[in-house]
């Protein structure tokens, strides 16, 4: 079975390319289609970027042995953090209309005015704009597609963490 799994460096590069494709898609929707990201979308982008940075460093470093597992664990943390935000976003989008929270101030304003801890609490609580479903592809909303990306990153991370160590 291990013969069908690419070498650690190649697997990291492939996952990195997937992160770059996800970010390119998000930026296309924002700058070409005019779909402005809500605060939860921005936090999901941070998760994708964090995963991409870890994968880039791992690809350049090309560790052997336990190093592969360490980068895998870091990638898993980025994927789990992003997936948690995506899950919250999906939950908000599926709330009945009468239970959707009111729209709050923009992320830029909150970062200028409030301490970071308060900003994180407010963003993760979600707002009315996060509950809107403005775009879908193949029946999945943007946060659902983010969840697919994070699930893929987690699979890559688990493969890297539990693959047999090189001798």
* Basic shape: elongated
| Fraction of residues in H or I helices | over 70%
Radius of gyration: 18 Å
Strand content: under 5%
Q: What summary fits the major beta sheet?
A: 2 strands, antiparallel
Which residues form runs of ≥5 with pLDDT under 50?
Answer: none
List the helices and strands and how they pair.
Elements: H1 8-31, H2 39-61, H3 66-93, H4 107-113, H5 116-125, H6 128-131, E1 136-137, E2 140-141, H7 142-162
Antiparallel strand pairs: 1-2
Helix pairs in contact: 1-2, 1-7, 2-3, 2-7, 3-7
Characterise the protein shown here.
70% of the residues lie in helices and 2% in strands. The protein has 7 helices and 2 strands, in the order H-H-H-H-H-H-E-E-H. It has helices at residues 8-31, 39-61, 66-93, 107-113, 116-125, 128-131, 142-162; strands spanning 136-137, 140-141. It has a two-stranded antiparallel ribbon. Helix 1 (8-31) runs antiparallel to helix 7 (142-162) and helix 2 packs parallel to helix 7 (142-162). It is elongated and about 55 Å long.
